[in-house]
Amino acid sequence: MAADTVLVALVGRPFDADALAHATERFPAADLVVLAVVTPLDAPFSEGQLLSPTDDRFVQARQRAEGLVERARGTSAGASNDIRIVVAQGRPAPVVAARADRLDADRIVVGARDRSRLADYLLGDGVGAAIADRASVPVTVVEVDQETPRPADSIL
């Protein structure tokens, strides 16, 4: 499937790198917009993660996104993606869906942990499902069975 513009949502989770890797592999000729979402401190836990109240969260989010993009470029042989990084603040689902509409994106890609039904019941359906509920374009939720978290990827 060809896609001209793919929005890759980075929501500050360890599996953001997996979403970006999937997008570069699955859509090697698409323009990628990497959207690093800085979640407000008052967002529900299932919609974001707990963040420390610092003024430099936007800078940290951009630096993390740049690092993920550089790693993706280094490991995606044959990919010719034009990759642009954008940082936005807000609850991930509405921010990602609205940005996809504004960009006229063809698809959204977001990472998610493979969770149990009990976890979904206790924590909510998760960010991927919330984005899919709001988006007007197809959403690919890259589920990762993450038995061993990667601490370097979890820093926002």
What is the spatial order of strands in the main beta sheet? 3-2-1-4-5
Low-confidence stretches: 43-53, 115-124, 148-156
Tell me the overall shape: globular
Q: From the alpha carbons, calculate the radius of gyration and give it in angstroms.
A: 14 Å
Number of E-state strands: 5
Largest pleated sheet: 5 strands, parallel
Termini gap: 31 Å
Report the total helices.
5
Strand content: 15-25%
**Helical content class:** 25-40%
Mean pLDDT across every amino acid position? 75
What order do the helices and strands follow?
EHEHEHEHHE
The assigned structural class equals alpha/beta
Description:
- With 156 residues, the protein is of the alpha/beta class.
- It has helices at 16-26, 57-75, 92-103, 117-123, 127-134; strands at 5-10, 31-38, 82-89, 107-113, 139-144.
- Strands 3-2-1-4-5 form a five-stranded parallel sheet, sandwiched between helices.
- Helix 2 (57-75) links the parallel strand 2 and strand 3.
